[in-house]
Every structure is written in structure tokens, then in C-alpha cells.
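Deliverable D4.2, example record:
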Amino acid sequence: MFRQRLTLLVAAAVSVLALLSACRTLPIDGRLPEGLSAEKITSVDKESPFALSPDGNVVAISSSGLKMFHIALKEQIDLSGDSPEKLAWSPFGNFLAAIFRKDGKSKITIYDQHGIPVAEASIDDALTSLGWLSEDEVFAGGMKVKEYKFGSNYRSILYRWSPGRGIPAADDLRNTTIQPSTYSSWKAALGRGPLIEPVGQSAQIFYLQPVAPPLFTPYYRLIIRDIDTGKELESGNVSLNSEGGSFSADGETLLIGDGIGSTKLYNPWSEETLFTSATPGKGPVLSPDGTTWFADGSLFRKSKMITALAPGVARFTPDGSRLIIRSGGSLYMVTGLKPAEGALFAQSLTAKISKLRSMRVQGLVTPAEYKETLKGIATP
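Output generated by the structure prediction step:
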């Protein structure tokens, strides 16, 4: 009897220790502020991309191939045995775009909402960014590097494609000459390409272009490009350690970190800085209303940290009430966040706002004039 009890006690102790050890190794351990909760929703490939559908119900993942995973039902659909490099849903969620790469070349495949492939295009470059300009047009970013004795020519490229209507069209963004030693030191960072992001509710994109002046530290120039005119607005500089920026849903504010020790939220149109936070800003993502954000594995509200969560990549649902995080080989969902309110301009105003931003990019209005004109447009 004593031996049986001892065996049971030892087994129980081992189980408790294993549980405690597991809790310590979980990225999100449940000790969250009141009202917030977190759960693992599925397993994914490590360091893989994912994309959350506009309704927040389905997430495209890479788990031994491309899949669509329905969060509530815990069901998935297999789309491809190949693993994607980038994923992006169309604005209304009717289509999913995926980039597959092999031997330095890329393929963009478009799937409908049921996971059926409906269009495909091949490009002889390594694409590094993916998104949608509208429900009918995809954009992708890439770069070409040509090496010379005196240095490397780094060319950022924007591709635009209307699936089912021809082939992708390439448009050069900017060129940079980079000295051999500089390119060697920053090759991994530069290999991420121009880190293109769409600007919400208007016809502009945002990208980072490396600048490498001799004898000085290289850096990224922050640029907003007007799609229709090709004109550009330079919006500051940031370290090559930066992982890019994230716009609010209405396209008014931009969150960007320098990758070293500073992250800021600012309005690139009016040139107003809303706050600066002493955190590197790795993997920054901004909530739809521009008040809550994720970076460096933590959740912030305005300039203050709310709680540590997990290192990785995250996306907010369109209503801002949930946050999906890919950390290591797991996908987590944080719930209980304050829903975003008034995150978008009324649809009837978007054409006027897009035109105003185009004028700002072209230098036809000043930051102060932009702010005053926008107020007149948005005020009933």
C-alpha cells in the first residue's frame, strides 16, 4: 500500500512539474490584465506568414502547405502543398493572394473565398511584399540588385496586376548605389525589399528606400507614393533596422519603429507627431482606430505598454477587439480588447480624401492646408 501511494505521489509530482514547466515556456501564459484572455488556435510553420480575412473569421496560414483556417469552427481547407512567402486578402475578402518563390523567381496565385485557384502570374524576380489596391488589383514589391566593382545598384520595384486581365506590370520606384562593404553588412535587411504597405482609404502606397551616403551610416527614407500620378512625398528617415510601418484603417496615422529603441505614431500628411515610445518597434501593427498597437511582443495603448504578450507577428481584427499573434510555431488569439470606433471615414468621403492626399503628395497643399481642408471635408 505504501509503495502504491508513493508511486502515485511521484507520478502526481512529475505531472505538476511538467505542467509548471510548460506554463513557463508558453509565450502567452494567461496572466493578462483583467478583461483580456488568450488561447492558442492552431499550429503553423515557424516564421511563416499569415493573413486575417476582412471579417476576422478566417486566417490564411502556412502549415506544411497553404491552408485556410476557420477560427470559430476550428476547421481548415488545404489550398496548396507549397508554403507561401506572403499572403494578403482582398479588401472585401472575396480573394486571397499568395506569393510562392523558387530559385529566385516568384509566382502569385489568387484563390477565391472557397480556396479555389482562379488566377496565376509568374515573375522573374524575388517578390517581398504583397497587398491589394482594390478588390480587382493586386500589388507586389520586389527589388533587383546589380553588382559592380564600385558597389551595388539597388532598385525597388512595384508590380501591379489585375488578375485575369493580362500580366503584372512593373514600375521602378527608386535606385540606390550602395558601397560593397555597406551592402555586405546590411544584406539581410536589404533583402526584405521596399516593405510596401497600402495607405488606407486612398490611392497611395508607403515604402522604405535605402540610402547609403559614403562615410555615413546608411538609413531608410520613408516615402509615400501616389499611384495615379507617380509623385512621391518623403516623410522622414529611419534606421535600416526598421521593420517597416503600419497605417491606421483610415490612412491618417502611421506607426513606425527604428528597430533600435524608438517607435512613433505620427500623421505624415500634417507632419504631426502624436507620441514617441521608448521601444524598438519590431513587427509593428496598429489597430484600426490608431490607438492600440503591438510591437516587440507587447501590447500598447497610445504611448503606454498594457502587457507583454509574445514575440512574433500580429494582426488586429477589423473591429479591433481581437489580436492574432504568430509566435514561433503557434497562432494565438487575444480577445477582450476595446473595439475600434470611428476607424474609417464615411465611404462617401473617400474620393475627396484620396484627392486631397494626392494634392499633398504633389506639393499642391501644405501640411497646415491639408489639416484644415480635411476638417472641412470630415465635418458634417
